[in-house]
Amino acid sequence: MELALEQLRRGPLVPRVEAALRTALTGGRWEVGHRLPNEAELARELGVGRSSVREAVRLLARDGLLDVRHGVGTFVARTPAGRDTVDERLRRARLLEVYEVRRALEVEAARLAAERSLPEERAELGRLLAEHQARSPQAAAEFVDTDLAFHLAVVELSRNAVLLDLFTAALPILRTALVEMIENEPGLPDTSCAHLDLLAALEAGDAAAATAATLDNLEVVIHYIRAQEATR
What's the whole-model pTM score? Predict the structure, then answer.
């Protein structure tokens, strides 16, 4: 069984490499206890960089599927079985799918935050947004981290623990994908006005306006991702 990265769905590179390795494990290419080809061989077979293979192997090792023995090699600890966890599903999802879930979570979180948050809590949102706006997209990681800190704070103000857990589970995937997009997609839309509108709506306790601002912020990116996928 050859690894077939090109047959996987489009999306961030590391999750696609992980999915290719997971598929090979599920298909029985390597049995439990078998040593995988080395990092360079896997990278060459998949047509990707060694760092992408290294990160994918790390994720599979974290799930208990691989056993990385430094200086010896990487071995199959167990094969995939049963239903995916939420984390595993998110890591292999297309960016569009993750953003559609993000939209569902954040729209409801913004509505609840407008209804349930206190004035002193909303003041902290202003500080977080100002910190984000002070960052340049040229420093992609810092730009994304400050953006997600603002959105996480909004979800926290919803006072819904399940919403918060789901959003937190998606954060690592969102961060990786957003950094990758900012670094490689010069045509990304500017959503700064929608962020300001969301902050104003929350400060006013206006649930309808908070919902509208959240949709404005996320829909434009979803449309952009769909257009990019259509050209691939």
Answer: 0.63
